[in-house]
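Colleagues,

For the teaching module next term, I've prepared a clean inverse folding example: a structure given as tokens, and then the sequence designed for it. I'd like students to try predicting residues themselves before seeing the answer, so please don't circulate the second half yet.
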């Protein structure tokens, strides 16, 4: 597998842009762009969606006024070759437009699916790190488990916490919130 930076486009073509995404069909799939390379993922399943919506509710309930919490689909843009749609994101209120978040989120959350896990744990994590997103959370819905990465002083993600099942994660960044992975499944837990 080649690194994203080593990708070679076929002769006569070039990297896609954010503008190219505007022509994608509204077919339930998620279309994201990383360094001009298109990622297409199918619609998520029940456990994924249950966790996403419940996490949104937990974060929204304690979100300070200077931040906003949004769920996918909502675009995070960086230049014209990156558009990501994290499952849940927290951004500074002043950084949002009606259409997108044109600055790095302060928190990006991805809930793993069989079709997205490798990108969520590697590719997207690396892009959010490069963009300077202070906190990146990954939730595995099968356990369920939450893994928390935060930027260190050198701008690299370090795993700072992991909570599974009924374990409690007390977040301080981007604001104080208590997360219990199993509770995010609701009746499915």
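(Answer key — instructors only)
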């Amino acid at each position: 597998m080649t690194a994203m930076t080593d990708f070679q486009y076929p002769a006569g073509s070039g990297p896609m842009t954010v503008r190219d995404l505007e022509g994608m069909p509204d077919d339930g799939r998620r279309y994201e762009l990383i360094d001009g390379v298109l990622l297409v993922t199918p619609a998520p399943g029940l456990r994924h969606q249950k966790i996403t919506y419940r996490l949104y509710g937990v974060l929204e309930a304690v979100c300070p006024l200077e931040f906003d919490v949004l769920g996918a689909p909502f675009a995070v843009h960086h230049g014209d070759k990156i558009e990501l749609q994290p499952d849940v994101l927290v951004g500074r209120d002043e950084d949002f437009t009606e259409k997108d978040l044109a600055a790095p989120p302060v928190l990006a959350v991805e809930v793993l699916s069989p079709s997205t896990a490798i990108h969520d744990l590697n590719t997207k994590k690396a892009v959010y790190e490069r963009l300077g997103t202070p906190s990146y959370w990954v939730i595995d819905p099968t356990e369920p488990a939450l893994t928390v990465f935060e930027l260190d002083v050198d701008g690299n993600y370090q795993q700072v916490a992991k909570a599974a099942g009924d374990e409690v994660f007390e977040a301080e960044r981007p604001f104080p919130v208590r997360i219990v992975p199993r509770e995010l499944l609701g009746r499915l837990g």
